[in-house]
Design goal:
This protein is 56% helix and 13% strand. By secondary structure, the protein is α/β, with parallel strands linked by helices. It has one domain: 3-Layer(aba) Sandwich (Rossmann fold), CATH 3.40.50.300. It has a 5-stranded parallel sheet, sandwiched between helices. Helix 3 runs antiparallel to helix 4. The protein is globular, with a radius of gyration of 16 Å. The protein binds thymidine-5'-phosphate. The site of thymidine-5'-phosphate (TMP) has 12 residues, from helix 4.
Length: 212
């Protein structure tokens, strides 16, 4: 087996972390070698880049700078963290991947999908998730969820206005429509158990398809 790459996407506060933990446990219980990671981040270099990106002090960051920083963090993540696990036959579950850049920088910031794909060509080196789950949550519901978490201070991206978050939401919906086979849209307002069951169902179908 040459490994399996799964990404989880969603607007802020859509419950990605909970679902990643549940999926990790499910797959580990089945005996798979599973590594969970996140973007931007996953290793010390990419985590440092993450700090720069989300720092609220960095108000003057241009959209291109932002897109390049996400791509730089991704380049390190792909070669340092993701590829070695896939080459070992493991399963990588990533909290966000290229789709986030296409939606946030390409669509919501207005750089365009093609520009963001071009910027990321060297970073992803042809890698695409085998399956992606988009936890769909109306933007304001997501921000309210985060605000209600104890002492959560909104970072630079979360502090964007409603218009930006609405663009992110519709960007994800467009991307999902264009990638029906890869991207599974799941209603994030469903119960944790129901969402997990949907994810497991789709993964099991993927295993069958791939003969795993
Ligand atoms: P997180 O809070 O889900 O960890 O993600 C950090 C923020 O970065 C979140 O607001 C989404 C944003 N983001 C982008 O804008 N582009 C990207 O390529 C990635 C990976 C995240």
């Amino acid at each position: 087996m040459s490994g399996l790459f799964i990404s989880i996407e969603g607007t802020d506060g859509s419950g990605k972390t909970t679902q990643i933990k549940l999926l990790e446990k499910y797959l580990k219980d089945k005996g798979f070698y599973v590594v969970c990671t996140r973007e931007p981040g996953g290793n010390p270099i990419s985590e440092k880049i993450r700090e720069i990106i989300i720092d609220k002090e960095n108000t003057g960051m241009t959209a291109v700078t932002e897109a390049l920083l996400y791509a730089a963090a991704r380049a390190q993540h792909v070669s340092n963290d993701i590829m070695p696990i896939l080459n070992d036959g493991g399963i990588v579950i990533s909290d966000r991947f290229l789709d986030s850049s296409l939606v946030y920088q390409g669509y919501a910031r207005g750089l365009g999908i093609k520009t963001v794909k071009d910027i990321n060509r060297y970073a992803v080196d042809g890698l695409e998730p085998d399956m992606t789950f988009f936890l769909r949550l109306k933007p304001q519901d997501g921000i309210n969820r985060k605000k209600n978490q104890d002492k959560h201070e909104l970072d630079r991206m979360e502090s964007e206005d409603d218009k930006f978050h609405t663009m992110v939401y519709s960007g994800y919906m467009q991307l999902a429509r264009r990638n029906k086979k890869r991207i599974h849209v799941i209603d994030a307002l469903k119960s944790v158990e129901d969402i997990h069951a949907e994810i497991v169902g789709a993964i099991e179908r993927l295993f069958k398809e791939k003969g795993i």
